[in-house]
Every structure is written in C-alpha cells, then in structure tokens.
User: What shape does this take?
Amino acid sequence: MTDISRRLYLCGGLQGSGSTLVSWCFLQRSDMDGVLDADNDLLPFLDPRLGTPHAWYKTNVGSFRMSELVRHYGDLGWDVYPLLVVRDLRDLWARLVGGSYAPNGITAEDPPLRMRLRRFAEDCSDFSHAGWPIIKYESLIATPEPILRTASQQLDLPWDKAMLRWPKMPAQIADCRRKDQSFWNVPHDSLISTVGHYQQQSTSKPITAVDLQWLEHEFRDFNELNGYPVRRTDPAMGEFRDQRLAPSFEVTRRYRWEVRRKPIRWLLATLGFGPPCSVKRRTDKSAA
Assistant: This one.
C-alpha cells in the first residue's frame, strides 16, 4: 500500500438507522470512493486503489461489531477512521420487526434482533469512550449541513459541498450493488430534498408492550448517552400487548439455502407444507 492513501473511512449502523444516507453523502466527495452498503456477514479484502485517494466502506452491525471491524482492517494495514450512525432504538425496532430485510434469525449471518441491538449499543459505548465520531440520525434530518460539517472535521476531512449537492451518479461509485430499498425509494436530487421526504415519513410504528419494556430497560444507558428519552409512551401498543416476535431458523438465508439444495423439499415448502413436514430443522438436531 505504498504511495497510496492508507486511510479507510469505516461507517456503520444498524439497518434502518440512516447509515446508507450518510454513506451516500460521503461517497459524493471528490476525494472519496468505495462501498455504499456492504454485506454485514462478510469481511472482504479491500483493494488499496478503491478510493481516490481515500477509501470508504459502510456496513451494518449484525454479524460483526464495528469495534471488531476497526481492528480487523487495522490488521490489514489500513489507518481506520470509524464513524457510527445512531438512531432511537425504539424506532429502529419498529422498522426491523415490520420489515423483511433484517430477519430475526438464529444464525451467524442473520442473528436475533435483540443480539444486533445489544452489539450496536456496545459499539456506541466504545465509540463514546474512544472519542470517535457519532452521527445522530434525528439531528442529521433536522440540520443536515452542520452535522456533516462536524463529522467531516472529526474525520480530519475538509468540507466538500458535494456532500449536499450529490453530483455523482451510482455508476460513478465503486460499489452500489447492494440496494437498500428504503433509501432508493425516495428521489435523490440533493440531500435537502431527500431529507424532506424522510421528514414526511417520520411516524413511528407501534411496538408491543413487552418489547418496549425490554428496549427501555436494556438500553437506558444508550438513551441517556445519546439524548433520547429514557421512557416513551406508545398509544397504539395496547392492541399488541401480548404479541412478541421470537427468533427462528426459517427466516434465515441459511434455511433458504438448505431448502433449495433439495428441489422436492423446496417445492413442498413453497406450496405451504411447512418445515415440520418437509425439512428437518437444524435446531432440532442441536437441541439439548
């Protein structure tokens, strides 16, 4: 990596945290190129020529914690500049439970949602102790330019107005292959116009009472650290009071792969003959 910038700007957040929006803003810079949104269960080799001159890599906290990624890429010779994007975990929980892009699984690739949130909160604590920059999603939506200016300064980068104007097209960025539909479903004229669309979608979905109680107990320190209310009322949660989403093997990518190895089993599963009838569950094998 001689004569090439050794800087790797490593951005992370939970799915639904707004980290893809932040990633897009930084990749608009004239001195930056890299990966808009990487797979969270892989640790790929990054070509030293990825950036121009600086490399950018954004992923989601899931299979790995950000603190682990910082050390891993440091071992590979990079000077890592980490950045974390945070959001009220109650809003994140409502988005993740209601969507299919972050399955509540039991495998290393698709870990339980509660485990993901714990890893994320631990990362946030590590970032705070290390003095690494943190972008709060709610602050970014409210005042985009000052937040990005501050983050750039913390990352030892000069300010670049392209972070607001978005002159680059996806084809001009090294890797935009992994698509976050919640990001691509809104217009991309500039940061200000896109933020306006996000502001119109700010209504939170209801959370079950048992999950809300766990979130506010488990992440009290996280809420206090980031200025979120320790307790928040949810007027719509009463009708969901007794529901709770349990992690399962059938929602994971590994389950779908194992089913597709056997075409007949895959057909039976597709027709509604569920896992107990057509596919021997991995969890049954390992149960004590």
User: Anything to note?
Assistant: Strands lie at 7-13, 32-35, 54-60, 79-86, 134-136. The first helix runs from residue 19 to 27.
